[in-house]
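In response to reviewer comment 3 from the previous cycle, which asked for concrete evidence that the modeling workflow produces usable outputs, we include below a single protein chain processed end to end. The sequence was submitted unchanged, and the resulting structure tokens are shown without manual editing.
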Amino acid sequence: MIKVLALDLEGTLINSIYNPMPRPHLYKFLEFCFKNIPQTVLFTAASYNEGVNKLNRLEAVGAAPMGTADMPVVKWERHNNTTTFLPKNLQFVQKMFPEVKLHEIFLVDDIEGFVALGQQDQYIPILSFQGSQATVHDTELLRIKDILVDILAGDWSVTRRGYRGFDVPIIGDKMEDKQ
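The workflow returned the following structure tokens.
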């Protein structure tokens, strides 16, 4: 069961904070998340203010549904107050929702290197979105939505243990085996 879905911003929902272009199908994807997952949060390397600003903008221009601007933003901790980020440890998300078990939190991100050790089964990789004209046919958010539907239905086989390619089917356990 997914109780919290953490979404990356740059390369996942938009191309860049500097010249943000919403990823195709963003509205429908977020609408699905808000309706079917108890909590959806933003987990980004962008500053809190930049993250909130981009969510407000996406909602204001109609690229994202109402409520997007109210999405909680996870405080991503840096290593010893430097510019180096620690991995996107889902325990940072769990601090916001202490009643949620760690295995009930999932991360959608385009950079596998940000995933904390031991949390790969909760990582849903997405191809990086660069915002070029070639991305007119980008359907990654629809693919991720389908994965979420399967996980919500209890099918754990969609997790990507060892995922390294595109649309690689992975045979895994059923969700009930993970609880």
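Helices lie at 26-36, 48-60, 90-96, 140-152, 175-178. We consider this sufficient to address the reviewer's concern, and the full set will be provided in the supplementary archive.
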